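Standup notes
- DV: blocked on the single-chain target, sequence here:
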Amino acid sequence: MNAVVDFLNTILWGYVLVYGLLAVGIFFTIRLGAIQFRHFPEYFRVITGSRETSSDGISPLQALTISLASRVGTGNLAGVAVAIYLGGPGAIFWMWMVALVGMATAYAESTLAQLYKVRNGDGQYRGGPAFYMAAGVGSRAMGYAFSICLILSFGLIFSAVQANSISEAMTEAFGVPGIVTGLVIAALAGIVIFGGIRSIANVADKIVPAMAGIYLLVAIYVLAIHITEVPAMLALIVKSAFGFEQAAGGFTGGFMAALMNGVKRGLFSNEAGMGSAPNIAAAAVPDPHHPSSQGLVQGLGVFIDTLLICTATALMILLSGAVDYGPDGAQGMVLTQNALGEHIGAAGPYFIAIAILFFAFTSIIGNYSYSESAMEFLGLGGRMPLMVLKTVAMGMVIWGAVQPVSAVFNLADASMAVMATINLVAILILSKTVVTLTRDYFDQKKAGKTPLFRFKEHPGIDKGVDPTIWNRDVAQERG
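- DV (later): unblocked, structure below
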């Protein structure tokens, strides 16, 4: 089993995804007319005043906060530190590149998830890559494979990984035993998760903006006291990305180390193209009522995760001088804690411990929310199958808090890679549909109208689309 997992990781991460993610992101950036640059303000406008919910689903803002809850976790603190330790400062540049082109990829996959969403037995919106693979691509086999990988990685294993990060940080800062941390986190997460998607949305809606805001304020303080060093540090990141400064600070990895670690950690952090965020994007009631508006919301999530939060972590680490590239050098969460300790003293490690507590906790509940859509697709969306999944997920939280998770994390990497590969193929197949939806949205904007979508106006987009969702009386709504 380990040999199979290692082989999959070597092939998919070493060859397929490192180049495939960048290539697909560039493809959609070109195909959609550089949407993330030309229409950047629209990424923000679609969440303005969008807090209202309906009986059908959650609000666009709640969908954003849940996807951020999943994205903003160990990847933003420990993952950035690992990227720098293994790939040098240049790894951050490739994280930026993955995010910038990833904004177009995230837009494409979440737009498709909105278009092909369905109503479950309770009348709630559900959808995601498995649904557009079955309805749009016409392959239920792709949907089944994707769903199994999603449940395995996001529904179960990543919960253990996040719990392990919380446990290590709490033990390092406060001396709290792992089992205690595990039981408390499992109990708190269970209260939220057993309440369903709306409960997760309500918690994420409150915690995520607060935790991200506080973390960025601390980063701004650190940048302010080192403002004269920031330009040189940014230049170092860019030069190191191409191997021009590979000996900086003792690092000798070069171009490929920066590229590989930056892309891998970038994907793990912002999830663009992986097919995870579309599962919650489909649960939203878009405002305006057009698939593209929710695609823009999730594209913004990639920007916030990587261009803001990951960059904040990276600059705090690099400006601290705490990076030791030797074999005994600190890495991961410990490096991030040491770095902030250099900036704000003894309070640094405690602040990072509290930050990862909230970041990783919300990742646990956000990750779980994705798996419900996969269960729905597999025909296991009933009360009892979901109860079993929730119980096992909580068990994984406790297990992850007390056991090393390196081996099982290797399995999660492979599962995530299979997910992403299948999803990238699907969105490429459906790229023409994404282009049609995008043109429809911005043509209406250009004409001064509120973008609204009726699939009957687009005879090429009707296969697998629920007419009760996208066949509303547009003329009447426009008044």
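- Follow-up: The domain at 2-451 is CATH 1.20.1740 (Amino acid/polyamine transporter I).
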